[in-house]
């Protein structure tokens, strides 16, 4: 009996600690649920490319902003897609996502942009058979000029923008020009899809989980001139992080097939699927925003199309893909990476294409 009594006090203490921990967890849970919702805009939400359709449920489930962040989703599309847009709204309601606190489906750009904290610009004009490059650019310049003005006037002051629609870099550049009150660093374009494709190719080459591969780089334009760079990539092994290049042991593959596979992956998917990438594009858009808002893991960088500050000899003002780290909602270009002659040439080629796109876009403004 005395032995049992001697255990009584420690058991009471342990019980109190467990009870206190449960109370703390409940308080944390309540605080998370009490977060004010963030408003996320998706343009082109009912588009034929299906990126918006794949993206919207991921946002509603917390894949973009975290499992405890409530969201309000604004969906914008053109008038001919209004019926499909309302059908997407119906499906969102039917899915009963706990984090989803409201849905707006509209063809009115002002209504769509009002109070937006994050804008994912999926909508754009796709090139049709027989169209000249300048005609396509002119259409997109017109679209992004109008949407930039609406975001400028009606979005939240700290709104973060991700441009997905091609030509993504140049569409983002036009948006930046016509939304001057949105901080320059808050306008980005998607090259995370290419980044993820590069991770996947190295993962398959080495037969390791893709989660063990990090720090590939996509330099430049989201186009066939982009440069997927594996020179700084590492793979987590039992011995620690090791050079992906050394583990692969095939520089010829890394400088030829690896690059072209990543560059042409979108075209390969269109050929196989008869439609462009939707699932992977939506997933990478979530990755881009999540890391931007919540931060990149220590020792890891990702690729984002951002406004060049002249780093690595890239002309300032271009929307160019760099390796970046993110912390507290801000991105920073990774500095001091060694650039060999092969890489320098590839980086300059894609910068030249972006300069040409910029010139063409500005000519469309006139």
TrEMBL record:
Sites where the protein binds substrate: 127, 133, 166, 197
Superkingdom field: Eukaryota
One Gene Ontology MF term: L-malate dehydrogenase (NAD+) activity
Stated family: Belongs to the LDH/MDH superfamily. MDH type 2 family.
Enzyme Commission no: 1.1.1.37
Lactate/malate dehydrogenase C-terminal domain residues: 191-359
Extent of the signal sequence: none
Keywords: NAD, Oxidoreductase, Tricarboxylic acid cycle
Domain named Lactate/malate dehydrogenase N-terminal: residues: 40-187
Gene3D superfamilies hit by this protein: Lactate dehydrogenase/glycoside hydrolase, family 4, C-terminal, NAD(P)-binding Rossmann-like Domain
InterPro entries recorded: L-lactate/malate_DH (IPR001557), Lactate/malate_DH_C (IPR022383), Lactate/malate_DH_N (IPR001236), Lactate_DH/Glyco_Ohase_4_C (IPR015955), Malate_DH_AS (IPR001252), Malate_DH_NAD-dep_euk (IPR011274), Malate_DH_type2 (IPR010945), NAD(P)-bd_dom_sf (IPR036291)
Name of this chain's protein: Malate dehydrogenase
Binding site for NAD(+): 44-52, 77, 140, 164-166
A Pfam family: Ldh_1_C
Catalytic activity: (S)-malate + NAD(+) = oxaloacetate + NADH + H(+)
Biological-process GO terms, alphabetical: malate metabolic process; tricarboxylic acid cycle
Catalytic residues in the record: 222 (proton acceptor)
